[in-house]
Amino acid sequence: MSRTPWFLRFLSPKKRKQSISSSTTTSASDQQRSSSTSLPYGTPPSSNYVIMDGGRRYNNRDDIPALFPEDDEENDRRHRQHWTLKLAFEGNFDAPVEEALVEGIKVLDCACGPASWTMEMAKDYPRSEFEGLDVTTSFPNAIKPENCHFTVHNMIDPFPFPANHFEYIHQRLLVLGLLASEWDSFIQRLVIILKPGGWIESTEVAFGELENAGPMGEVVNEAANALTSSRGLNVDIAKELGDRFEKAGLVNIKTRAIPVPVNQGDKLGQLAWENFRDIFLALKPFVRQTHPQLDEEFLAAFGEECKVYNTKTIWYRTYAQKPKAE
Ligand SMILES: C[S@@+](CC[C@H](N)C(=O)[O-])C[C@H]1O[C@@H](n2cnc3c(N)ncnc32)[C@H](O)[C@@H]1O
């Protein structure tokens, strides 16, 4: 199969191929079995990876934007990011689902990554059943709570679940994973598998929109916007989710925006800074195509600038309800 080299693919927005891991013909339970007994369904062959930037491993697939490395270092960053977000929002969710989770419901975590949220929630709510989906296989295969199941699945494909299946759907940080043109149909397909009266919740970051940015912060904002627009991503999705949920027929919509100080104040500011820096280091091969000045030295100086300008990054969490059946 001919494959466009990554550096050429970077130059124009992605045109998606059908997913490598199309799971439309396999039932959810079949996939759970396969993911717990052997290599997860759809595990890409090693030729789908390219080693760049001092040994970091990047995905070279045609069916996902694949900007982040897929390696242990990135998984560690995502675990730390989970704790940063939990601290910023003072909890793992805002939707009014606590009581239902205690009693026992079906929960879906979309693009679960290494499954920090899924695993913690499964442990906290042992009567509920958690399904984690991700296009890569960074989720745990064997060591996981019994009420936690994982399947390889690309969010652009139809979901391997029946209509009205989940009471609660969680999705976090797909801003660099879905093309701008894919968000509405993704949300519509989520609404189909959500039970009437069930809740959906999304947490995203306003990537490329630092508040109180100094001169270096403006360069960082520019670089983030250049990256997302060149790849056909939607940098504004964090702020648009409320409207998009409404358009999809959802009700009782609430958004909470949390400005998080970068490299200032207490532990949260420090964690937010380290996460921000590590994101830009992870995206380095792509960011430097347009902004070569964004090296380690620049980032370190930008970290200091944040303290002077009181620079903040803004996280958004939006939840909404599927109308109850008449
Ligand atoms: C920044 S990580 C967030 C992981 C997790 N949601 C969290 O908050 O810790 C983004 C995840 O989205 C996944 N992803 C990106 N595009 C995807 C797609 N089209 N379908 C499924 N997963 C996707 C990536 O593999 C990655 O695990």
TrEMBL record:
Annotated region (Disordered), positions in chain: 13-47
Pfam families: Methyltransf_25 (PF13649)
InterPro entries from the UniProt entry: Methyltransf_25, SAM-dependent_MTases_sf
Record's compositionally biased regions (Low complexity): 19-38
The organism's place on the tree of life at top rank: Eukaryota
Domain Methyltransferase: 107-198
Protein name: Methyltransferase domain-containing protein
Lineage summary: Eukaryota, Fungi, Fungi incertae sedis, Mucoromycota, Mucoromycotina
